[in-house]
């Protein structure tokens, strides 16, 4: 009888370890998904910053051309 009890305890522990492992995998997937989102947000943000400075650069040179036009 005691061996039956040990067997069931062993099965219960295997069950617990298996589900802890599953939870760990779910946590990893969630964490990787968050990292991926942060990566995307960062690069989208950098893209818009870049576009903004390119716009300023363009405006500045259009202004310079306008000044040159006034000089001639």
From TrEMBL:
Keywords: Membrane, Transmembrane, Transmembrane helix. It comes from the Eukaryota. The keyword Transmembrane helix applies. The chain crosses the membrane at residues 6-33, 45-71. This is Uncharacterized protein. The lineage of its organism: Eukaryota, Metazoa, Chordata, Craniata, Vertebrata.
